[in-house]
Amino acid sequence: MIGLTLASLARQALGTGKSALSTMKTLAEIAATKVQVHTKERGRRATVLLAPTLAAEQRKAGRVFELDRWLPGLLSSMNESVSDPTVERGA
User: Fold this and answer.
1) In a domain, 82, yes or no
2) Is residue 9 assigned to a domain?
3) What 3-state DSSP class applies to 81?
4) How much is the pLDDT for 79?
5) What is each CA distance from 52 to 1, 12, 31, 34, 40, in whole angstroms?
6) Residue 43 has what DSSP assignment?
7) Per-block average pLDDT, block size 10, for the chain (91 residues)?
8) Cβ neighbours around 54 below 10 Å, total
9) Which residues span the domain enclosing 6?
């Protein structure tokens, strides 16, 4: 019951007319990749976060749920220059 409640609340927060299942599938596709890069220095290899390419609904979810708090690289994929009338601009 908790899972269904959370899915329903997420759908309402995003203000979408899609089903809860469809909304959860869209949100589940938000993923970033960590890559270890080789450097000439000794020691632990540096890790770089590759930001995902996000659809409009995923960018909106990133803002609504403040996902950049846990995934700072997500901000780089939330390009504000993309004109999408369905996505609210951050206040």
Assistant:
1) no
2) yes
3) coil
4) 54
5) 31, 24, 6, 11, 27
6) S
7) 85 86 86 81 79 83 83 60 43 38
8) 20
9) 2-77
